[in-house]
User: Which sequence fits this backbone?
């Protein structure tokens, strides 16, 4: 079974730009969660999608948004990028959202 | 807000010594999960505990879930250099439906 695939692996953007990250979950998994990982803040929950609906949301500003498609693939969008958005963005899939999370390799986003 | 705290933040041990990391939640967790992240890698699921007082073992790793379902521990016996990494606990507080991760404990093992 193929694992969770995230693209791209690396991104360099400048302040004010926007970015879209993609995540393909494990086949059969309907839940996709997104996390931001930084050295200072650890793993911060962004949001979770299940069957194309956002089911849970973390404490991030509205610049962070996402969506899920009918094939369970998910995208995350960050608009008006700030320096503080530099981080590793991890996507995880699971069968039900609260069970074992299977993480992708992440997208490392750098803001200049 | 709901928090999951882990201690210690860092631990350096000599190879062969034991290691323990503790996880505490401000609210009851419906389950507790443990993950390991190697340097440069992504978190990898290790185990999930669901029952109050549950204890599970995986070779040299022992996981416990507290009676009140608010705390958990991971104990590694006779550490090896392959145990190096950051260990995270995670759980969904109450009925929030969100999986909250602890800050992690980074383990260094000196050969």
Assistant:
């Amino acid at each position: 079974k193929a694992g969770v695939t995230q693209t791209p692996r690396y991104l360099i953007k400048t302040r004010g730009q926007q970015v879209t990250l993609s995540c393909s979950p494990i086949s059969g998994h309907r839940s996709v969660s997104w996390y931001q990982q930084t050295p200072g803040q650890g793993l911060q929950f962004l949001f979770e999608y299940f069957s194309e609906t956002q089911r849970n949301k973390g404490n991030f500003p509205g610049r962070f948004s996402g969506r899920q498609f009918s094939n369970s693939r998910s995208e995350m969008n960050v608009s008006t990028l700030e320096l503080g958005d530099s981080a590793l963005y991890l996507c995880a899939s699971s069968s039900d959202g609260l069970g074992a999370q299977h993480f992708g390799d992440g997208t490392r986003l750098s803001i200049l | 807000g709901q928090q999951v705290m882990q201690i210690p933040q860092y631990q350096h041990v000599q190879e062969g010594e034991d290691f323990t990391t503790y996880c505490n939640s401000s609210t009851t967790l419906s389950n507790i999960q443990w993950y390991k992240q190697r340097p440069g890698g992504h978190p990898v699921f290790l185990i999930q505990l669901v029952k109050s007082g549950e204890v599970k073992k995986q070779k040299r790793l022992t996981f416990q879930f507290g009676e009140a379902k608010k705390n958990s521990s991971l104990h590694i016996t006779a550490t090896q250099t392959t145990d190096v990494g950051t260990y995270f606990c995670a759980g969904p507080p109450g009925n929030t439906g969100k999986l909250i991760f602890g800050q992690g404990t980074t383990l260094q093992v000196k050969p």
Chain B is about 0% helix and 50% strand. The mean pLDDT of chain B is 94. The radius of gyration of chain B is 13 Å. Chain B touches chain A through 23 residues (CB under 8 Å).
